[in-house]
Amino acid sequence: MAPGFEKVRDVFARHIETDTLGAACTIYHRGECVVDLYGGWKDKTRTRPWEHDTIVLVYSVSKGLSGAACAVAASKGLFSYDENVGDVWPEFDVYGKGKLTVGQVLSEQSGVAALDLKLNNARMADSEFCALAVEQQKPNWKPGQYSGNHPYSLSWLACELISRRDPRERHLERFFAEEVAAPVGADAFLGLPKDFDRDRIARIDGFGMFDLVFRHTNMSWALVTSMFWPWSLSFRALNNPLFLKGPAELDEEQWWRIEQGAAGGMASAPALAKIYNVFATGGETYGITQEVADQLARGADLPPGGLWDPVLHTDLHYSYGFEKPSGGWEFARTPSAFGTFAIGGSMAFADPDDEVAYAWITNQLGTWLRDDPREKDVREAFYQCLVENARCQ
């Protein structure tokens, strides 16, 4: 803990003591790790303490890891965000999807959020099979009209874009491991290695469908209602595979091992912060070009539908595999920031203008869509310290 950030420690400790099973938070500022906290327990037995190298399923925070891999790929010249996706992936050019740019596809505008194909572990473990499914999928909306949450399919989109242009034909899992995680020594995985020490894994304490009603927080009632209507877009996108006991069902061995760069990533807080720190401090370690850095900081152009997400029934600015500060969700001090939040509370982002890299993860899922108060309190305490420290200089 760097001097001047004690308030972050105090807020973090309060949540560990009162309302959080286990969590960790790591924050870099100007390339220096100024906050590195962890506490609580790895599972509900409360016999295995959370440790510095503990990893946990981070759900949609995984999208940012896929976004990082695509930023590296773009910087290597494998594709550009402005390139027509049909030129990279000709088979995707059906139902008007191929007219989009790579950037639009990575910004979740293609409309393949909900697949007609019924998904299960065996099918999702076959990336080529899933790529074929998104190729053939009729879009849920006119491609390019909206940006909407692609809870699983963003992984297969990113994987196909990378593997089709990578000279070594690496899939997303391997490309991320070699080009993103390895250069900074990050314990982050889009498919857990078979020999990984299982004792380092924190287990998820989740919630069920009815908790969305009886523990209602900031999810819109339109989204909550849709989750009980099997024909709605939200249900078809978010509940395929169908998990009757809620998102904690993803926290099992059979799911840990599959390549799933939208919802199945596993990481420690230090690992996420290390990765985002590269983007917050110029991107040199990953060879990020100035053009790509500028595009990430500026953000993808909004579609005609604006910020509205027809899957989550809220406003979000999806951008190249990340989300940007927007509307009522200004998660950072500057508009240059980009990162991802996850159902349940985890959050990670880079803020290049402030040179901040932030990661907060937990194994106790809240029912907040975003701005989980545990995470938000820690984040706001950090920025308060940042302002106060600047005044003292």
Notable traits:
alpha+beta, Beta-lactamase, five-stranded antiparallel beta sheet, three-stranded antiparallel beta sheet, 12 strands
What is the strand and helix layout of this fold?
Blueprint: H1 6-18, E1 22-29, E2 32-40, E3 56-57, H2 61-75, H3 85-88, H4 102-106, H5 121-124, H6 127-136, H7 153-165, H8 172-184, E4 188-189, H9 211-214, H10 221-226, H11 233-238, H12 253-256, E5 266-267, H13 269-280, H14 290-298, E6 308-309, E7 314-315, E8 317-319, E9 322-324, E10 338-341, E11 347-351, E12 356-362, H15 373-392
Antiparallel strand pairs: 1-2, 1-12, 3-5, 4-5, 6-7, 8-9, 10-11, 11-12
Helix pairs in contact: 1-15, 2-7, 2-8, 6-7
Task: Provide a descriptive summary of the structure in words.
With 393 residues, this protein is α+β, with helices and mostly antiparallel strands. It has a single domain, classed as DD-peptidase/beta-lactamase superfamily (Beta-lactamase, 3-Layer(aba) Sandwich). 35% of the residues lie in helices and 12% in strands. The protein has a 5-stranded antiparallel β-sheet, with helices on both faces. It has a 3-stranded antiparallel β-sheet with strand order 3-5-4. The longest helix has 20 residues, at 373-392. It starts with 5 loop residues before the first helix and ends with a helix. The mean pLDDT is 95.
What helical percentage do the residues reach?
25-40%
Measured between the Cα atoms of the first and last residue, the distance is: 18 Å
CATH structural architecture: 3-Layer(aba) Sandwich
Number of domains: 1
CATH C-level category: Alpha Beta
Instruction: Pick out the low-confidence regions.
Output: none
Could you give the count of β-strands?
12
Task: Name the strands of the widest sheet in spatial order.
Answer: 2-1-12-11-10
CATH superfamily: DD-peptidase/beta-lactamase superfamily
Percentage of residues in strands: 5-15%
Number of helices: 15
Overall body shape: globular
CATH fold category name:
Beta-lactamase
